[in-house]
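Predict the assembly for these two chains.
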Amino acid sequence: MTVKIGFLSLAHMHAHSYARALQNRTDCSLVGVYDPDQKRGEAGAKGMNTTFYSDPLELLAQVDAVIICSENNRHREFTELAAEHGCHILCEKPIATTLEDGQAMIEACQKHNVKLQIAFPVRFATPVMRVKEMLDQGQIGDVLAITGTNHGQMPGGWFVDPVLAGGGAVMDHTVHVVDLIRWFLGKEFVSVYAEVDQMLWDVDIDDCGMLSMEMEGGIIVTQDPSWSRPRTNPTWGDVTLEITGTKGVIQLDAFAQNFMVYDDEKKKVSQRSFAEDMDSGLIDVFITMIKENREPSITGYDGLKALEVALAAYESARLKKPIPIN
Amino acid sequence: MIRVGIVGYGTIGRLHAQAWQEVPGSKLAVVADCDAASLEKAQNDWNLPAVASVDEMLEKYDVDLIDICVPTPLHESVMRRAIEGDKHVFCEKPLARSLEEGQRMVELSSGYQQKVGIGHVVRFTPAYQKMRQSIKDGEVGEPGVIRTFRGGSQFPMGYQNWFADFDQSGGVILDLLIHDLDYCRWLFGDVERVYAQSTRGRAEEQLEHAMIVLRFKNGVIGHVEGSWTNFPGQFYTRVEMAGTNGLISFDSRSTEPIRTMTAAGVRLQVGPTAVNPYALELLDMVEAIKEDREPLITPHDAYETLNVALAALESVRTGQVVKL
């Protein structure tokens, strides 16, 4: 079977790498793109060599599944629309900007019997998958503590609009690391303390912070989600985890596989990755899930639990005390 | 289905045996080795028949391809037997120990109906492939200077310590740095002249550090460096390429995404890529057979690289510049 896919909104730049991953496969086809921003949608569709639809219903009538890459606060309306039309959904992270919206998305998909997968592509980076195996094999015993970073450059655009994004650096970069840790350990976070502020950029949203958390079983965790990489940084940012266990330590630098390119013409120093493309792993499980009628490997619930931690971090920063998570 | 027989179950034979498991359309069928302990290990590792020689393999087993993993000076005789048996041949680098052997191997394989490929695995590693693409895309402009390093690890252990016998292995330059010489040729083409130095003979037998200065016909200046030591250390490689518009810089030590520290010590995982470069070079061979095309690295190509490595050895011996 050929799985027919459409994009609902190209607001998030990940849409383009997902499209490349789709188009490298023979078992799915990219039918087209809908975007409420017609100019962005038309340009994006052209870049993807596919069709732009000005009416989302026309696109939904022709596809088996959609990939939602809208602004965070519009994930709910697009998910509900796609679910009503019987389309399976891959939704960009974070699942939504409020727990209420996230819950509504999960319920809409259940009601219409469509599958909802959240896009946490970092799970598919090869080094990350290896660390998951090492932990499952007990190579460092029982995990006691984890220090994570997900640094980035300040993304600008709608990412710094409090309504559209639902939060800044903490919203953008907490959910990836929280998701990885929940996946690694199969345990939930129970409390969050966070310092959150706008210090680094001229934006009206948080651009830096530090989270200190506790998990079930007394595992202690910190996470730095700051947009602290300057414009001259040779790459977008990083995902690192230092995991201390009863029998050893694992240090993971998920995107270390690269070399440097110094380009005088572009006046730019950049890192060039030679790692496998993690987006193709994410797309693979999504397409395979649909073809083989499997359960999603990254569920709406996973998306909701990651969002819950990010929202608790904002609450903690506001109240200046640790916030319990149920 | 390509049925494979590995001849030589030492360091590289074991790596290839693992890699063949990852090559679709192939099946490792039999292993040959003259050493009883290696034969027993092959049987235990893969539950396969193991024989004492390539002759016995050809006589008793139906194989399509012979994978030559014996010490360098034995490459020619095994290739000759495989070609007499009308088999496809994959031969580990370096092609041969001497230019004469190499020349005879090129002649053996020219006009031969089956495929013959040589294992210069660096051409199949993701980092080196992507760097070549950057050069091809003109990201550094016109290339001017290249520096490479390979080594830092303990002296390689081979059957009867053959790596330590210069007459068999050719030392660091022929056995190890030939990887980078081949990569440089792949990037920049033919070499004009070579000047090389080595510590061989100036320190204990199992410590060699060598530096090769190259001038390519296209004008590029190269420095190819590497070592075998007896100090505990981590194998690593480096590449730096400068051109009219910029620089490419790679050091495998800063590209290790996973480091573990346990009671067993510190362990670095060098590039846990999902693809095994050895499997990729063998897959190229299998596809070349299927598609009836030349493998990426032909005996002639490997001969040209061998020629550069032997010129470097001659330069070390004579202290003179060697023109190619």
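The longest helix of chain B spans residues 299-318. Chain B touches chain A at residues 126-127, 129-131, 134, 139-141, 239, 245-250, 254-263, 269, 271-275 (CB under 8 Å).
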